[in-house]
């Protein structure tokens, strides 16, 4: 090429990076965006949080939920109205409750109101024995809408009441409605907040008025494409997407995509100092960065796809959803992003434009000084890092118990406080009702067995239809407690023993119990599989055995420390009542897959440099070259996950905080200090059994040189 001062051997690279290629890539992405844009907007229309879709596929409560949906009236939303006055109910209060009952019974026929604890001929409203409360239940058919749309109008309809008469609308449907309200608009909130956070960090990182926009445009295109792809996966393969997974998709694409952008820009800026032609520089940058980026993406995708073996539908669905997002981010950042950079040329870096110079020398910086310090104090660096991680891991002795559904809200809504009021005045109805389905001819026998089960306050028969009879069972203990779960287990054991009844037990608390048990079982299956898959990817990338084992060990130790430190914060600082059942597996997956990313970036560069410089100098050169960009990438990824901390749901706060803290811990301590220190201690054996692990014989035939002395080995 005319005016290209690069060596003549770069001509093939220049031809590969012909001037028309970037414009073609940009054009193809514009067409793809136009096609996929409308589909991305449809993702919210296929998200679901229904029990039948998100519960464990093989759980007993799932079978009950499916059966309820198939029977007439079985899918009704049950609300509980609890009226209470501290000084005792007055005649006017009781008249108000009766009036509200009549109004709602007319508004929501035909299966309007059923008294709790009374037979069909009893009064529709139920007074408490202490005379301070009254209640009734309301079964509203799905034809009137989902819980979120119904609970507000129900509360409004009961506003007209005497001063001092309090009302809490609670029950399973009210909890679902309040939970849905939390997720209402969450995708847009997460998207906008993430864009703002990433934008600010990119501006701070590059200190350029324009450069920050290019990664954002490319990642935005990746996010748009990923949402459309997930929508097509749902329509074509029936994958379950809930609101939680939809929010995580946005976080993953923006966080990982921006990381890839930072790594590629660092290599591109470096290449621009050595190649005058920007297209040639980009080809060399891609040659250097793409293997690590592809390996990183492959690691995360492989880890996510391990979720396909999970039994919990919501967990299993996250596998292909997240994998699609990472794949879209990978393709966008290796095609669209470099194409835009090449078209805009060097001026995109203004005011710090990298100048072409064959004599450009790098000045020693922070990471060179850190590397020199680690090299002099290897044992101190390694043991000190492990000591910090060990202290943080002590937090695992804190409250890691399962989080109750009622404790999921940062600020308890009316449906949650209502359960407390209900338990105060109606202690016999302490827990959420169970639903027992049995064959009609065995209903009486099953009812007798249930009533005689310890922990059951009362049981009453329901309707018979579709070859099934249902029984409502009220446990004595508070919802989602160990005592209530024990009662559910005893009821199941008792009804299963009735021959021919084919009885199954479900309900909200039973669903939570099954979900918790299944999540624990999934952890034992998925976690070893993720470790094995990630280890294989690392071994293939580094062409070694020792290095992947060391890197995996550091990531696992880092996860334990991040989890322990986070539990301490959750328990002591934030006052959470436990850890959501989904947090350990999700956090492990993200921290192992994403945490290995930074080790991949460092170790792949170290192996590349070791070929020229030897193990010691190769690691120090890699730390110097990647330290800044990996730290920036860690900050960006941590900040994107930290977006979840702003949401009003404890589960998302726990995932966001744990992953953000773990990413920072991994980027700032494990990758920056521990891994280099261990590599320097282990020496060339780090690359065993590859050729790089073999001692290098000096020309005079004397003893093999130590790592500090070795000349540059050859492939």
Automatic annotation (TrEMBL):
Subcellular location: Cell membrane
Keyword flag Nucleotidyltransferase: no
Compositional bias per record (Basic and acidic residues), positions renumbered to this chain: 697-706
Spans traversing the lipid bilayer: 20-39, 186-204, 211-234, 246-268, 289-310, 322-345, 379-398, 525-542, 549-569, 581-601, 622-651, 657-682
Record keywords: Cell membrane, Membrane, Transmembrane, Transmembrane helix
Family: Belongs to the resistance-nodulation-cell division (RND) (TC 2.A.6) family. MmpL subfamily.
Protein name as catalogued: Putative drug exporter of the RND superfamily
Organism: Lentzea xinjiangensis
């Amino acid at each position: 090429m005319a005016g290209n001062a690069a060596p003549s051997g770069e001509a093939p690279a220049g031809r590969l990076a012909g001037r028309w290629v970037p414009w073609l890539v940009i054009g193809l992405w514009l067409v793809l965006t136009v096609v996929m844009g409308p589909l991305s907007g449809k993702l919210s229309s296929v998200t679901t949080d229904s029990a039948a879709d998100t519960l464990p596929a093989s759980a007993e409560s799932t079978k009950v939920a499916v059966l309820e949906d198939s029977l007439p009236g079985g899918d009704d939303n049950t609300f509980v109205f609890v009226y209470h006055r501290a000084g005792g109910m007055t005649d006017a209060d009781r008249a108000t409750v009766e009036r509200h009952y009549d109004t709602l019974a007319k508004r929501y026929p035909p299966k309007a109101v059923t008294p709790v604890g009374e037979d069909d001929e009893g009064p529709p409203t139920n007074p408490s024995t202490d005379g301070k409360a009254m209640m009734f239940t309301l079964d509203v058919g799905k034809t009137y809408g989902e819980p979120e749309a119904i609970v507000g109008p129900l509360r409004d309809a009961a506003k007209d009441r005497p001063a001092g008469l309090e009302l809490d609308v609670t029950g399973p449907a009210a909890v679902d409605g309040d939970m849905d309200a939390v997720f209402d608009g969450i995708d847009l909130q997460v998207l906008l907040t993430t864009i703002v956070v990433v934008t600010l960090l990119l501006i701070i990182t590059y200190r350029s008025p324009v450069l920050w926009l290019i990664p954002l445009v490319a990642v935005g295109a990746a996010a748009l494409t990923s949402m459309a792809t997930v929508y097509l996966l749902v329509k074509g393969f029936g994958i379950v997407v809930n609101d939680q997974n939809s929010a995580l998709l946005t976080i993953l694409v923006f966080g990982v995509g921006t990381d890839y952008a930072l790594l590629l820009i660092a290599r591109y800026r470096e290449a621009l100092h050595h190649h005058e032609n920007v297209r040639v520089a980009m080809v060399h940058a891609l040659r250097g960065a793409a293997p690590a980026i592809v390996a990183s993406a492959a690691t995360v995708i492989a880890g996510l796809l391990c979720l396909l073996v999970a039994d919990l539908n919501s967990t299993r669905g996250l596998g292909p959803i997240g994998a699609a997002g990472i794949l879209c981010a990978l393709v966008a950042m290796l095609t669209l992003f470099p194409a835009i950079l090449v078209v805009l040329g060097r001026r995109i870096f203004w005011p710090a434009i990298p100048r072409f110079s064959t004599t450009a020398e790098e000045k020693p910086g922070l990471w060179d000084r850190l590397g020199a310090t680690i090299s002099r104090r290897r044992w101190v660096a390694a043991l000190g890092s492990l000591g910090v991680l060990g202290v943080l891991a002590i937090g695992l002795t804190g409250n890691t118990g399962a989080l109750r559904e009622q404790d999921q809200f940062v600020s308890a809504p009316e449906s949650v406080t209502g359960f407390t009021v209900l338990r105060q005045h109606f202690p016999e109805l302490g827990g959420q009702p169970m639903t027992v389905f049995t064959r009609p001819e065995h209903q009486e026998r099953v009812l007798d067995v249930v009533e005689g089960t310890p922990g059951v306050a009362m049981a009453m028969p329901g309707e018979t239809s579709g070859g099934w009879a249902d029984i409502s069972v009220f446990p004595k203990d508070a919802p989602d407690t160990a005592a209530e779960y024990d009662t559910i287990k005893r009821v199941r054991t008792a009804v299963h023993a009735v021959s021919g009844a084919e009885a199954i037990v479900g309900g909200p608390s039973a669903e939570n119990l099954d979900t918790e048990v299944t999540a624990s079982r999934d952890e034992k299956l998925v976690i070893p599989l993720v470790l094995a898959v990630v280890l294989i990817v690392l071994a293939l990338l580094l062409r070694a055995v020792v290095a992947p084992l060391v890197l995996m060990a550091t990531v696992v130790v880092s996860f334990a420390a991040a989890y322990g430190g986070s539990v301490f914060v959750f328990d002591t600082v934030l006052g959470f009542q436990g850890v959501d059942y989904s947090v350990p597996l999700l956090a492990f997956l993200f921290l192992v897959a994403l945490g290995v990313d930074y080790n991949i970036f460092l170790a792949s560069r170290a192996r590349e440099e070791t070929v020229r410089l030897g193990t010691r100098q190769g690691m120090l050169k890699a730390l110097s070259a990647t330290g800044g960009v990996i730290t920036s990438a860690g900050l960006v990824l941590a900040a994107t996950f930290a977006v979840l901390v702003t949401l009003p749901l404890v589960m998302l706060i726990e995932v966001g905080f744990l992953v953000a803290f773990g990413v920072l811990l991994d980027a700032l301590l494990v990758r920056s200090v521990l891994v280099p220190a261990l590599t320097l201690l282990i020496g060339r054996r780090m690359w065993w059994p590859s050729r790089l692990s073999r001692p290098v014989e000096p020309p005079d035939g004397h003893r093999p040189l130590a790592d500090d002395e070795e000349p540059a080995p050859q492939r």
